[in-house]
Automatic annotation (TrEMBL):
Other notes: In bacteria which possess the bifunctional enzyme ornithine acetyltransferase/N-acetylglutamate synthase (ArgJ), ArgA fulfills an anaplerotic role.
Pathway the protein takes part in: Amino-acid biosynthesis; L-arginine biosynthesis; N(2)-acetyl-L-ornithine from L-glutamate: step 1/4
Segments forming domain N-acetyltransferase: 307-453
Record SUPFAM superfamilies: Acyl-CoA N-acyltransferases (Nat) (SSF55729), Carbamate kinase-like (SSF53633)
CDD domains from the UniProt entry: AAK_NAGS-ABP (cd04237), NAT_SF (cd04301)
Any Gene Ontology CC annotation: cytoplasm
GO terms assigned for molecular function: L-glutamate N-acetyltransferase activity
InterPro entries, A to Z: AceGlu_kinase-like_sf, Acyl_CoA_acyltransferase, Asp/Glu/Uridylate_kinase, GNAT_dom, NAGS_kin, NH2A_AcTrfase
Organism whose genome encodes this protein: Candidatus Kinetoplastidibacterium kentomonadis
Record-linked HAMAP family: N_acetyl_glu_synth
Protein name (database record): Amino-acid acetyltransferase
Chief localization: cytoplasm
């Protein structure tokens, strides 16, 4: 009889092994992102609310990890909530908002004081390094300065906006020279300085967008307290093409903050930023999940949809094997060795999304009979029944037609109905090209379907 303690030991060992396997799989899965983002610049923008909500330490831990992976970081922040506290202490009834409003001298001094305090909070958080914590052995250097040249907004519709400013220029060379040093992060408060020595208050979204476009950043990430992404599942883990932004805003499903950020993200992408993200900061690890998982947890604005159908390359073989191997084990697809895939790689088309291969199909042509076989048509399970396989099939079908093919055929053991719905009809082995007839595996007894194109 096995004692209960022995059973417990076995279960613990099994759980430990499973945890190790999961860790290794996860680590390998994020490797493409680590390679892709090394030496790239990310602009991270957040308001003072993040600090008031006690989310700074968690954010700093995750940003330190990004820095350690070779990502160049520029942090853009404001201190509106902290400035409002200063105003209240000084018995000033003015409450600052994120709308355009005049900034007088007293308000400016409160904003400068609050911005200085926030900067110290950020610097002290990055200085942590206790053993057995995420910041252990982290040596992050924070640099700030007069990187932003500003000018007054002036008088608009008869209103003098005093110390509210516009960005005149960002000292790109100075910022680059700092962030290109290992583990150095640049800090940009939402305050700019004029050649006359005056300070002007800037809008954080405008500063972040200008910094991203000027520095040619890979990503612009707005951290938000808005619950829209969490509540509205249609906004979580999606990409939004610029063409769709207007219709989303007009749907009136967004709060004011989310609407503003979505518009700024759209504007930054139109001005050359490749991708702009809106991520809820109150979710633990939100930046890591957004950057290192395929779908992320926020909303991402891009110029065009990132789905990309292209000719396969030799570098894609590993990804193709991952796609078709489970189907080969189930007997749905015939086994193809790496050597065969390397030989036939020019026959494959792949679906790529944000550096990840998630679908493939092969086209084997028989020019003499003006026929072609479509093989290895598959997409990842998460995207099945969502039209991706259909798009891939149509692309390969069109390619065959352009190459003078008049009939396409498939051999299948499981998906006959899918092909029947797309205009195929069942045929027998004698309908196949002679070369394919010789290769036909009678033990698999695959059904044959043919379509005229």
């Amino acid at each position: 009889m096995i004692q209960s303690s022995s059973i417990s030991d076995i279960e613990n060992t099994t759980n430990s092994q499973q945890a190790q396997i999961q860790f290794v799989k996860w680590f390998r899965k994020v490797a493409p992102y680590v390679h892709a983002f090394k030496d790239k610049t990310f602009i991270i923008a957040f308001g003072g609310e993040l600090i008031e909500d006690n989310c700074l330490n968690i954010l700093v831990q995750d940003l330190s990890l990004l820095s350690a992976l070779g990502i160049r970081l520029v942090l853009v922040y404001d201190a509106i909530p902290q400035a409002n506290k200063q105003l209240k202490l000084k018995n000033n009834e003015k409450i600052l908002s994120y709308d355009l409003e005049p900034i007088n001298h007293n308000i400016l001094e409160c904003i400068k004081e609050a911005s200085g305090k926030v900067r110290l909070d950020i610097e002290s958080s990055f200085s942590q390094g206790l053993p057995n914590t995420p910041m252990s052995n982290a040596k992050i250097r924070i640099i700030s300065g007069n990187f932003v040249i500003a000018k007054p907004k002036g008088i608009i519709d008869g209103i003098d906006y005093l110390y509210a400013g516009n960005i005149r220029k960002i000292d790109v060379d100075a910022i680059k020279s700092e962030i290109e040093k290992h583990s150095t992060i640049a800090l940009l408060p939402a305050i700019g300085f004029s050649p006359t020595g005056e300070s002007f208050v800037l809008k954080i979204e405008e500063l972040a967008t200008k910094a991203a476009t000027s520095l040619k950043a890979e990503k612009l990430i707005f951290l938000t307290s808005s619950k829209n992404i969490e509540i509205n599942s249609n906004l979580s883990g999606i990409e939004i093409a610029c063409n769709d932004v207007d219709s989303i805003i007009k749907s009136n499903c967004l709060d004011k903050e989310m609407t503003n950020l979505l518009y700024k993200a759209y504007k930054s992408v139109n001005n050359g930023v490749e991708r702009a993200h809106i991520v809820p900061y109150y979710l633990d690890g939100s930046i890591l999940l957004e950057v290192f998982t395929h779908y992320g947890i926020g909303a991402m604005v891009v110029a065009n949809n990132l789905d990309y159908m292209r000719q396969a390359k030799i570098e894609d073989i590993g990804s193709i094997i991952k796609l078709i191997e489970p189907l080969e084990k189930e007997g749905i697809l015939i086994k193809r060795s790496r050597n065969i895939l390397e030989r036939d790689i020019d026959k494959f088309t792949v679906l790529e999304h944000d550096m990840m291969i998630y679908g493939c199909a092969a086209l084997y042509e028989f020019p003499e009979e003006k026929m072609a076989e479509i093989a290895c048509l598959t997409v990842i399970p998460e995207l099945q029944n969502k039209g991706e396989g259909e798009n891939l099939f149509k692309h390969v079908e069109k390619k065959a037609k352009l190459n003078g093919i008049e009939q396409i055929f498939v051999l299948t053991t499981r998906t006959s109905h899918w092909f029947l719905k797309r205009g195929f009809h069942q045929a027998d082995i004698s309908s196949l090209p002679l070369e394919k007839q010789k290769q036909y595996n009678k033990l698999r007894n695959s059904l044959i379907f043919i379509k005229n194109i």
